[in-house]
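Lab meeting minutes (informal)
Scribe: AK
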Amino acid sequence: MDVPVIFEIINDAAGAYRGVIPTDCWAEPYMSGEELRREIEGGVQFWGVEEEGRLVGVMGIQHVRDVSLIRHAYVRTAKRQKGIGGKLLDVLRVQTSRPLLLGTWAAATWAVRFYEKHGFRLVPPGEKDALLKKYWNISDRQVQTSVVLADEKWFEQHVKGQGTGG
C-alpha cells in the first residue's frame, strides 16, 4: 500500500480531532511520516478501500501477544458516512481468530458510537488502563484520555476467567 497516501488519509481524517482531544495531545501533522513508518515496522498491517481507483479509507490490524488490535482507522473527510469504515472492519475481522481490542480518544464520541454499532463494547474503566499499557505503546496522557473497546470474543474469554492472557 502507498505509505504517502496512507499518511494523507490519516492526517485529513484526523482533523476531526482538532479541538476535541486535549490540546497537549494534538500535533500538526497529527501523525508524522516517521511515526507512520514506525507503526508499520512495528507490525501494523494496513488495509484499504478504493473508489474509482483512489484510496479513500485505511484501517490497520496489529497482532500483539494474545489479541489483535484495530489500529489507525481513518476515512477521507469527503467520504465519511458511506459505509467505508464498516467495510474495513469486516475485512479485518476475518484476518484473525484472536479477540479484537481497539483504543480511541474518549472525547471522540462518534468513533465510540461507530464501534459500538459494529458490535464492540466499552471495557470497564478499571481495566482499560491496564489494557492500554499492556498492548499499546502510548503516553500516560493518552492512556488517561482514551477508552478501550473489545469484541464479544474478548468479553467471553475475560468473563470465563481467562483474563487478558499474556
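Next up, CB showed the second protein from the same session:
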Amino acid sequence: MRHNKKQARLEQVRLDILQRNICPDLAAQATQLVMGDGNPNADVVFIGEAPGKREDELGIPFVGASGKLLDEMLGAIGLDRQAVYITNIVKYRPPKNRDPSPLEKKAFLPYLLEQLAIIQPKVVVTLGRHSMEYFLPDAKIGQVHGQAIRREIILPDGMHAEWLIVPLYHPAAALYNGSLRGTLLNDMAGVRALLG
C-alpha cells in the first residue's frame, strides 16, 4: 500500500511540472519529461544532472552509456536498479546535451526536493558536480567524493529534512577516464556499507 501511495504522490509531482509549464523552452525541444525510475520506497536515491538523448527517447533516466555503467556498478555492490530510485535535477534534455543552466536547475529544484520528501531515503547519492552543488555548494568533488555528509535541507513546504549526502563522480566521467572507474566502484561500496 505504501508503495502505491508514494507512487501516486510522485505521479502528482510529474503532473505539477507539466501543468506549471516548468522551463517551457527546454520542454519545447525535448521529446518528453524524464522523471525518475525505480522503487518509491528506496533507501537510496541517485541524482544525476539532466537526461541525454537516449533518456529523452525512452523517458527513463540513466539508460544510455552512463546508465549501463551505473547498472554495472549497482550490480557489483549487490544492488538492483529496481531496489533504488534514480532521477536527475533537470527533467528535460538540454539541447545538444549541454550542461543545465543555473536557472534550469533552480526551476526544477523544488520538484526534486518533493521527490526526496516523498521517498524519504536514508542516503542521497549525487552523481557529478551539478547535483552535488545544491546540497554541498562549497564542496570540490575531488576532495569530498565518497564521503557521507549530513545536511539539513529546507523543503518547499517549509519543513526541514536531514539527509546523508554522498557525492560521487558522474558515471560519464568514468567512461572518459578509466582510472575513475575504480574510484567510483570504491565509493559505491561505501554507499552500500551505509545502507547496512
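CB comment: The beta strands are 36-38, 44-48, 85-88, 123-127, 149-154, 160-168.
No objections, moving on.
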